[in-house]
Design a protein that fits this description.
This protein has about 350 residues and is mainly α. The chain is about 55% helix and about 5% strand. The protein has 14 helices and three strands. It has a three-stranded antiparallel beta sheet, with no helix packed on it. The longest helix is centred in the middle third of the chain and has 24 residues, at about 170-190. The radius of gyration is 24 Å and the shape is globular.
Length: about 350
């Protein structure tokens, strides 16, 4: 259910209420786990975490405290955290990709608890339970003809759109805006290789017209992800971005904030919106296999590797801190590239 303009989410309203209740509590002597919980959420809001991130911590840590029961947080050991993660895995309610966020939430929470207890080591760090999402051995990607069709299809539909086919000016303008926005999303995903969540979190000030750059604010606190980086765009893409920002002037609402990518009704893009756009235009181009937004990143990486990019440049463009991550996950030769290497280095040319 959508919130009214100016209305806070439920978790933020509860945080406000408990901030008043527990403001005077000295956490060095508190035994109630829930006091730690609410003070931690108040801390996240105070240092500027986004409401969506606070909401995720709100639900994930609440689930852990319910499982923990009456045992004090001050006495939690690593084996209890591992038992909890194992419990989540055995319940089969969460995928491994989602399990990673549960572990990270606990790690950040116990860093806060350690400030007011005698804990010397974070019990949620260096767990023996596997929680990371396994990277597929063979990455899915779009071939060049599919890529070109997906970029050209919205433009073709835009050229065919006429005012006489719509009952009102509003519906006509909405259709024009949606087509331009979705084509721009596809162009940026395919030409920069950014993650879908990075695109949905992009703000207007991240667009730098003079340098033809986009600043990327990476989501999450993983050690292998660069927190801030720049990607390059073409002059044509920059012009389309400028035009899109002008179209947004009449539809922005308090829900839009300063986000760069918003819907025609003024709401910001959710994390799943890039996947919806990719799936929709893939189906319009008669691409019938399973597709998802991360395939644009795999496609970008594959094209770079096929064109002979070195590993260090690939690491920079993909936004990794560690070269090992790039080599392990992304620097993989496609069948076309393997055949090219064979033809070049085969000692018997005949």
């Amino acid at each position: 259910m959508k919130l009214a303009v100016g209305e806070k989410p439920k978790c933020l309203r509860e945080i406000e209420k408990h901030r008043v209740l527990y403001r005077q509590k000295n956490l060095k002597y508190v035994k109630n786990n829930w006091v730690f919980y609410w003070r931690f959420l108040c801390r996240l809001e105070a240092i500027g975490y986004r409401p969506s991130t606070i909401s995720r911590y709100y639900s994930q840590i609440k689930l852990f405290l319910s499982w923990l029961g009456s045992k004090s947080l001050r006495h939690v050991k690593k084996k209890e955290i591992e038992s909890y993660i194992t419990h989540l895995k055995s319940s089969k309610r969460y995928k491994l990709y989602t399990m990673r966020y549960h572990r990270e939430a606990l790690c950040v929470f116990f860093e806060f608890v350690m400030r007011f207890s005698r804990m010397k080591v974070n019990p949620a760090s260096n767990l023996a339970v596997r929680t990371h999402y396994p990277q597929p051995e063979n990455m899915d990607f779009f071939i060049q003809s599919e890529l070109e069709m997906m970029i050209a299809k919205p433009k073709l539909e835009l050229e065919r759109t006429r005012r006489c086919n719509f009952k009102t000016d509003h519906s006509f303008k909405r259709k024009i805006y949606t087509l331009k926005m979705e084509r721009l999303v596809l162009k940026i995903l395919f030409s920069t290789g950014i993650r879908p969540c990075e695109l949905s979190n992009m703000e207007i000030e991240d667009f730098r017209l003079s340098d033809l750059k986009l600043r990327i604010r990476s989501k999450g606190s993983q050690q292998y992800i660069v927190q801030d980086r720049n990607v390059f765009i073409s002059e044509k893409t920059a012009e389309e971005l400028q035009e899109t920002i002008r179209l947004q002037q009449g539809i922005r609402t308090p829900h839009s904030g300063t986000y760069l990518f918003i819907h025609h009704n003024g709401w910001k893009f959710s994390r799943c919106e890039p996947s919806r756009i990719v799936r929709y235009w893939a189906s319009r181009c008669a691409i019938n296999r399973r597709v998802y937004a991360y395939m644009t990143r795999y496609t970008y990486c594959t094209r770079l590797v096929e064109n002979g990019i070195d590993a260090y440049s690939l690491k920079k463009l993909m936004g990794h801190k560690q070269l090992a991550v790039t080599l392990r996950h992304y620097l993989k030769l496609t069948p076309t590239e393997i055949r090219k290497e064979w033809r070049q280095f085969n000692p018997l040319k005949g």
